[in-house]
Design brief:
The protein is an alpha+beta fold and 1222 residues long. Helices cover 40% and strands 13% of the residues. Strand 26 and strand 27 form a beta hairpin. Helix 3 crosses helix 17 and helix 25 packs across helix 32. The longest helix has 29 residues. It starts with 19 loop residues before the first strand and ends in a 10-residue tail after the last strand.
């Protein structure tokens, strides 16, 4: 093929237009320890420090590069493309430690990538002449240097190591298809044929150990993970739980094997680094195990919550028990009857539902001289032991749904779950019930996502071969099982001209060249299994995409959520894919179409025509589509007309040339999350995502950060017509001034009045430059303990208290602190910025609210409609997260999934803020204590007469009674009993939360007057309950009342004697609804086999215990009826409504110094304090990260709290680690 130069000249060569600089690179953990350090690396001068760090840490080959090389002559290859090998003779002359080194320059990396691509391209006949090959090499290096495009991570890891350095090793079980003979071969080398593919889809057979079966899949996955790739599999072929096995047994079901695969993936570090494996698990909606699959991660997160709560509870209360054993005289301290401190500790432990035998064990340990129990305390950190204990944490889970299922949901029809062994119906359920389950699970833990099977296969280019069943981990690559895709992404910001317009010619050129590049990568690659090698060669799928659409739109002054924004996105996407297929057709003319084209010519051309119709903005005329796409329409303003015209021309050419010659590739484009490679290209936004924050923390060489507004914000403000001074004011408002000089309220003068001297103010000023909040600067570590105690008069206890607010203690109000904070540290948002007009605010909307004061964020629908605009022009799919606020409901999750289907999306993944247990809420940034203080200050500032009115108003608002009516259909229970020979029927009615709201009393064969009296008495009690009168008041008033009938009670398992009918009724209600077992004559606890003596009969625990039913039980079962089982089913809520959970774990013990039972020790108290301090420190870091716009998780590789959501994955802005495959 001909390759014309566009960015370079023959004279300038590959690097002629790029300036380079030398810098250092280091990445640190939050505790200051080094993750990675390189003192001298050569990088393009325009690259940011983060891009340099990612390149150096992730993509530089660290070792094994020969210091001396020589070339290997190949007659059919130009001499400048000859590959290199170690020069053994020259290496002998070097000291042993200097013979092999690592890469130190970006030029080395770019050379090995572009050189290897050009080498294989030449051998494969992709260039008409040597000049074309040289132009291709120079242009590819130039685009890498200028951050215009980047291939997926496996290319950086693996490509060119053999060509550039002669690095090799034994085969790892890979295969490839010889491009000259078309025959499958087993690799004899680890690197001669690199593995450049990031995305794989693998099949699984319903057998245990055969090739292609269950256990074989784990081996194939491991081979992929080792080289930094990700894989997805649809497990629907596996039989469900209890389906018959050939040997006569029953299958353990899909879930048992998913847990094995999850554990295996979690143990493998992708790419040989600390990055976790990237994996997708898919199950069809008609699989017999679908209900367990949908709720899998929900249940596992509940286990984590139980482990965390239980471990903290056990550590606290069991240590209280063992410490209490040392709080009395030697002969009495182990007897709770005599040791009141021990008795109270036992009562507290029982109230939290700790097992009796553990409580007793603590007392036994104390008898043996032990002074404390070291009970492991878990936390909700994603990489903590609690999460490592449970399953389901190493994959993205997705349910594959068809149009048939979604139509059944809309019509409220039945849905059959089908056995895999014989195709018969395993069970039937309401489609809406499964839909509700999916929505609730997505709301609760952000999994599962959905893939729309019918839409996916309507756009399938090779439908005659087989259907599409699966996808890669991030859902952008969807094709036949056992195929692979290598990705690359274009940085759209690099194609914006200085006048703000989009450079169509440059973009078209880059798309063409990178399409050729990805095609060459298919030809040179090796694959982890013979089947993948054969099918990838046969269908040759590519994955070109883009990044930074959010940044481009902002720089153009166009809101992400706008018709104009969607039109720009759709037109660029249509242009890209049209040029890709046009180039593919041109390659087919020279090299032939992909081998599977002939059998799939009809479905492929049908899909091409549908793409072209959408590009031309047609609403009708589509072929064999169940849902028509969102077509590309011209805007009334004409802003995107040039791009749209170019896209339509590209699609016309792609279809015409394809009809003549076919296509070289079955697929050409996807939109990937561009995680790590997005950082290498210095993209403000990734993939098709909007921005996540307007203010970023830019890293400095040698460590440290400084705040900077997004590079697109000043560009946008300039385009909108704001002057330089106005722009500077707005940026200062967002970023802050970094100094207290001339700040409102809290400034140098006011601080001097408080006792600060010039030196101390200088220390503050130095710390403020990169501070996120001024509160984090006013502490003993910045100012020094001596200054704080001697000059400011603060106590040691105050300085050690993590919640201590020094500025408040110095007399500044919350409002004054907020004003100074915005002046110094900035608001991190443009909302409320000076000069900014309201109509321009939507341009700067992000995925989440920005800063403390930000309220605006993009709606759920805006994300979905942007996806819908781009999807008709993408071969595969789009990796994107639909961000939802914490306040979103389950119904809104279901609505988002339904809208996605109706707009023609192929996949959707939701993320509701705070839905992951490991990620704190944005809402946690609100300080409830501060809110209360604000009210107190309001009261304090008023005259005495006004204060009483405010307080009275609050009291009246709080206690004004309103009737709370019961639902029309409610639960309750009926209790039949005989009191003194008279039959009594008690019927209750309950609210959904289990509270009693009404009672009915009927007595058998009594006189009409007495029965009417009892009936009206019950009505009066019911109305009082509905107006909020506590049942405890009635219990206190009516128990122990005496009148006939009275005496023995028969038919009630807890109450055996009553002094009157009312005494019986309210004893029964107290036992059933209030847990007042002190009013019962038979205690349920006394029947359990592990009961330990309580010390005294009027035990405080029994007298005060409450047994509120758990929320799930309360909704569906009568609390009153279940009272006899409440010890088992609930009892885990404390009096103030907090749920306490227990967890079993091993206990290790430590003895006191002397080991004597007579000595006491409180050594565990410092241990507990340090644990609390560590947890608080981490939560401070988490909250700070969330306020900066990060997700709040710690990076598993470098430990920094700089993770951001990236498509359906996460990436770290510090070290570049990503949970995806790119």
């Amino acid at each position: 093929m001909r390759v014309q130069r566009y960015f370079t000249t023959q004279k300038s060569g590959a690097f002629g237009k790029t300036n380079f600089r030398e810098t250092s690179s280091e990445i640190k953990n939050p505790d200051g320890s080094l993750v990675f350090k390189h003192d001298a690396i050569e990088v393009p001068a325009s690259w940011s420090q983060v891009a340099c760090d990612v390149l150096a840490q992730k993509y530089f080959r660290k070792a094994g590069i020969p210091a001396k090389l020589k070339t290997v002559e190949e007659n059919e290859v130009p001499s400048w493309l000859w590959r290199s090998v170690p020069d053994a003779d020259a290496l002998k002359d070097l000291p042993a430690e200097e013979r092999y080194v690592g890469e130190t320059s970006a030029k080395q990396v770019f050379n090995r990538l572009a050189g290897c691509w050009t080498y294989w391209g030449w051998k494969g006949g992709y260039f008409d002449s040597e000049a074309d090959a040289q132009a291709y090499y120079d242009e590819m290096i130039h685009m890498l240097c200028q951050q215009m495009c980047a291939p997926n991570s496996p290319q950086w890891f693996n490509t060119g190591l053999h060509w550039a350095y002669g690095i090799d090793g034994p085969s790892q079980g890979h295969h490839y298809v010889d491009f000259q003979t078309g025959k499958l071969k087993k690799s004899s080398s680890a690197y001669e044929h690199p593995q450049p593919h990031a995305c794989f889809i693998q099949s699984i057979g319903d057998n245990l150990v055969n090739d292609g079966g269950i256990m074989d899949l784990w081996v194939r996955e491991a081979r992929l993970f080792k080289y930094g790739s990700g894989t997805g599999t649809n497990f629907s072929a596996l039989r469900g739980e209890n389906e018959p096995l050939s040997g006569g047994g029953k299958s353990s079901g899909v879930m048992s094997f998913l847990r094995i695969g999850d554990r295996a993936a979690g143990a493998i570090k992708s790419g040989g680094t600390t990055r976790r494996a990237a994996k997708m698990v898919i199950l069809d909606a008609d699989h017999p195990d679908i209900e367990k699959f949908v709720t899998w991660k929900v249940r596992e997160e509940q286990k984590v919550a139980a482990l965390v709560a239980g471990s903290k509870t056990a550590e606290k209360y069991l240590n209280e028990v063992i410490e209490a054993c040392h709080d009395a005289d030697a002969e009495d301290r182990f007897d709770p009857k005599k040791n009141k401190t021990l008795k109270k500790a036992i009562v507290r432990a029982r109230k939290t539902m700790l097992p009796e035998n553990y409580i007793q064990r603590c007392i036994d340990y104390a008898r043996q001289g032990y002074s404390q129990i070291e009970f492991p305390v878990f936390d909700t950190d994603w990489d903590s032991e609690a999460y490592l204990t449970v399953s389901g944490q190493n994959s993205n889970n997705t349910v594959r749904v068809t149009d048939e299922f979604l139509e059944a949901v809309e019509a409220d029809r039945d849905w059959n779950l089908v056995r895999r062994t014989d195709g018969e119906t395993a069970s039937t359920m309401k489609a809406r019930d499964l839909w509700e389950m999916i929505g609730e699970a997505a709301w609760a833990c952000a999994d599962p996502g959905l893939q729309y099977d019918t839409t996916i296969n309507d756009w399938h280019t090779c439908l005659n071969t087989d259907r599409i069943y699966g996808s890669n981990p991030c859902s952008e690559y969807m094709f036949l099982d056992n195929t692979a895709c290598n990705l690359a992404s274009l940085n759209l910001m690099t194609f914006q001209r200085e006048d703000g317009s989009f450079d169509i010619a440059a973009f078209t050129y880059a798309v063409r060249l990178w399409t050729i590049n990805l095609e060459i990568a298919v030809m040179m690659a090796q694959f982890p299994s013979p089947e993948i090698a054969k099918l990838s060669y046969r269908y040759r799928t590519l994955g070109l995409g883009y990044a930074n659409i959010g940044g481009l739109l902002m720089a153009m002054g166009i809101p992400y959520d706008s018709t104009e924004g969607r039109a720009i996105c759709a037109s660029i996407t249509a242009l890209m894919t049209g040029i890709c297929y046009k180039t593919s057709a041109e390659m087919a003319e020279i090299l032939g179409s992909f081998p599977g084209y002939s059998e799939n010519e009809e479905p492929m051309l049908k899909v091409m025509r549908n793409h072209r119709l959408a590009a031309h903005g047609e609403d009708t005329g589509y072929e064999k589509l169940s849902i028509n796409p969102v077509p590309l329409k011209n805007l009334e303003t004409g802003d995107a007309d040039d791009i749209i015209a170019a896209a339509r021309t590209a699609w016309d050419d792609a279809v015409i040339i394809g009809e003549q010659h076919g296509y070289r590739n079955a697929q050409t484009t996807v939109i990937a999350p561009t995680g790590t490679i997005g950082l290498v290209m210095d993209c403000d936004t990734t993939g098709i995502e909007p921005d996540f924050a307007l203010v970023k923390f830019k890293k400095l060489a040698g460590g440290g950060y400084f705040k900077i507004i997004n590079q697109t914000v000043p560009v946008a403000l300039k385009k909108l017509g704001y002057g330089d001074d106005q722009i500077e004011d707005m940026i200062n408002y967002a970023v802050g001034r970094g100094t207290l000089e001339n700040a409102p309220k809290i400034n140098h003068e006011s601080l001097r009045a408080k006792g600060f001297d010039t030196d101390t103010i200088g220390i503050l000023e130095a710390a403020l430059k990169d501070a996120f909040d001024i509160k984090f600067v006013f502490n003993k570590w910045t100012l020094g303990t001596d200054f704080c105690s001697e000059k400011l008069g603060l106590t040691g206890g105050q300085l050690d208290d993590l919640s201590f607010d020094m500025l408040r203690e110095l007399g500044f109000t919350l409002e004054e602190i907020a004003q100074a904070n915005n002046y110094v540290c900035g608001s991190m948002t443009l909302e409320g910025a000076p000069h900014l007009r309201d109509e321009h605010l939507p341009i700067f909307d992000c995925a989440n609210p920005c800063g403390r004061e930000g309220k605006r964020f993009l709606s759920v629908e805006s994300h979905i409609r942007m996806l819908a605009a781009a999807q008709p022009f993408i071969s595969g799919s789009i990796s994107k997260t639909i961000n939802m606020p914490n306040s979103a409901s389950v119904q809104e999750c279901k609505d988002a999934y339904m809208l996605s289907w109706k707009l023609g999306l192929k996949a959707n993944a939701l993320y509701r803020d705070g839905s992951k247990l490991s990620q704190p809420l944005n809402a946690q940034l609100v300080d409830d204590a501060d809110a209360e203080e604000t009210l107190l200050e309001t009261i304090a500032e008023q005259p005495a007469a006004a204060r009483a009115g405010i307080v009275a108003e609050r009291v009246i608002e709080r206690f004004m009674a309103r009737r709370s009516r019961l639902p029309d259909r409610r639960k309750g229970y009926t209790q039949k009993a005989t009191v003194g020979g008279h039959k009594v029927y008690l019927r209750t009615g309950e609210y959904e939360d289990g509270r009693a709201g009404e009672i009915f009393i009927d007595m058998h064969k009594e006189g009409a007057a007495f029965r009417s009296l009892m009936n009206n008495f019950a009505i009066a009690i019911s109305i009082a309950l509905q107006y909020g009168v506590p049942m405890e008041e009635f219990v206190e008033a009516f128990t122990f009342t005496r009148f006939e009938p009275s005496g023995m009670v028969e038919g009630n398992d807890s109450i055996k004697m009553a002094t009157s009918i009312l005494d019986y009724i309210f004893r029964e209600l107290a036992v059933s609804y209030l847990g007042r077992n002190d009013l019962a004559h038979v205690h349920p606890e006394d029947l359990t086999p592990d009961t330990v003596g309580r010390g005294t009969e009027d035990d405080e625990f029994v007298a005060g215990a409450t047994q509120e039913a758990l929320g799930a039980v309360e909704r569906y079962a009568s609390q009153g009826y279940m009272r006899s089982n409440l010890i088992v089913m609930n009892g885990g809520r404390t009096g103030d409504g907090e749920v306490q959970m227990k967890a079993s774990t091993d206990m290790s013990t430590s003895t006191g110094a002397a080991g004597s039972a007579g000595e006491t020790s409180l050594e565990s108290l410092p241990l507990a304090a340090s644990m609390v301090s560590a947890v608080n420190d981490q939560m401070d870091a988490v909250r700070e990260a969330r306020m900066k716009g990060y997700e709040g998780d710690a990076c598993t590789e470098c430990g920094n709290f700089t993770l951001v959501r990236n498509g359906t994955c996460m990436k770290c802005l510090t070290c570049g680690a990503t949970s995806g495959c790119s």
